[in-house]
Design goal:
Nuclear Transport Factor 2, Chain: A; 3-stranded mixed β-sheet; 2 domains; 4-stranded antiparallel β-sheet; alpha+beta; OB fold (Dihydrolipoamide Acetyltransferase, E2P)
Length: 280
Amino acid sequence: MWLIGIDTPERGECGTDDATAHMEQLAFGRTVTPVSDPTQDAVDRFGRSLFSVDRDDGLDIGQEMIRAGWAEVFVFDQDFQRLASYRDAVSDAEGFERGVWASCDGDFHRSRADELRERRLAAVEFVRGYYRSVSRRRFVAAWGMLAARQRREVGPFRRWKEGHRHTLSVSVVSSRARLSGARAVVSIRLVSRDRDACSGRVVRQYFRGRWVLAPRRDSWVGVRVHLRRTRGGQVRFSKSECPAPKPPPPPTVNCQGYSPCLPPGPDVDCAGGSGNGRAT
């Protein structure tokens, strides 16, 4: 038998086990009555009998499956009698984010593999978005992507922002994510372009590291970030790191051929008078 007007997840798709359990909860141990629909064929093309199923207390099991978020409305060829009430049940389930509306964004036929792949892609995009915000100097947005614990490790916002004052861009060269329970671990390679505070040159630096992300509402939050520099030029971010300027060389003195030096003067031959010693 096939319930008129509803479609439920199949094996391996989002919500399969929960949909089956909810169906059993609604019907197990209860008296149910199959109700035909004169607008529909009695048998579908697969040889299944088509009915709505009403419980002994008048509850429409198909409609209740939809309202709980474990089924969706299905119309083949032409509308069925209970379509309007079923669509109201869809709006109810979606509005209150029940069933697969909460776990799979209402996509009843998304497989578990699809769901995991989408979560990994979302984690990678989150990390890339953080570095895009830093490159575009949207520091408040980037700071908000870090969890409170990670912020404390980084230090005050003002100091963290000051550390990026000479950063021209940060690009993610490669990234991949794996899932660990509810969390995601994103391994990355970065290249940064920074302007040296002393010479004014643009310096490239290369990093490897990883982010650990925790779910937060419809996105992620960075709970731990670890990076290490692998190569690249040295960059100074503050004038205080610049070497002191070299003192000017001493002026050249004409010693007139004497050693130790006898600098030019009015009388340097120690004989009195106006003698000035040997000419140079």
